Amino acid sequence: MTGTGTVRAADAERGTLDKAAAENFPVAPFFLPRDWRTDLMAVYGFARLVDDIGDGDLAPGGADARLLGVSPERAEDRLFLLDAFEADLNRVFDATPRHPLLRRLQPTVRRRSLTPEPFLGLIAANRQDQLVTRYETFDDLVAYCELSANPVGRLVLSVTGTSTPERIRLSDAICTALQIVEHLQDVAEDLGRDRIYLPAEDMKRFHVQEADLATKITSASVRALVAYEAQRARDLLNEGAPLVGSVHGRLKLLLAGFVAGGRAAIQAIAAAEYDVLQGPPKPGKLRLLREVGVTLRGEG
Questions:
Q1: What is the DSSP letter of 13?
Q2: Distance from CA of residue 95 to its chain's centroid?
């Protein structure tokens, strides 16, 4: 690779990893052991990049496509890019990947004996986003979250060496809840991508039409629907919260941060009176810290 190519690859890698600061929850906070931070950031880099491919949010210039060996003519074809990304993921397990974020992931995979399944699930979720833009039932949405969110929690447990069947079950509930909360924050943005993650049967129940989601003024019906889905997410967070008490030390603080991030985001949505069409309601740092304390004490 030329010097210029090396710089562009480094820029593509850094641009993706820098997005960690904007997440609802801490990705690899300072208080974790360095090797955990390294491995969690490697996992995050994969998850963020595959989402950016699926959402069409790659950095301008086509650097990521070139790194994956995709020609400029196919660089806007998201399904083709996802196929190329999956092929590069396969190299993580048996060769040398092309993309720097996957080269960063390879030592983590080897060190933690990670399997391809959770990574393939995240790719499958983004393929589904290209083909499925509406969900009829809440169960359909939960099945999507099993691909789009739950693998991340499973990877966290694997990286930290704490995975058990019961912890996976609790983690799945938390991750599904966090995904639903993100969907609620991003109703307007998702609609701009012609995606609606509010279940159609619930929209009918609350007399909400798709056109209601595209207005400047949020109706009482939309607010009631968002409140209903927010309660579902809150219930799932409460169901998964015992995961925090099942571990110790710095991992306990990390997992409390995940749960608290979801709870604080739900409270921000409630504080906005469930008006999510004007932009994503975001919690402040004080609210997040307060929720971390509540979660650690097991009071939430």
A1: H
A2: 27
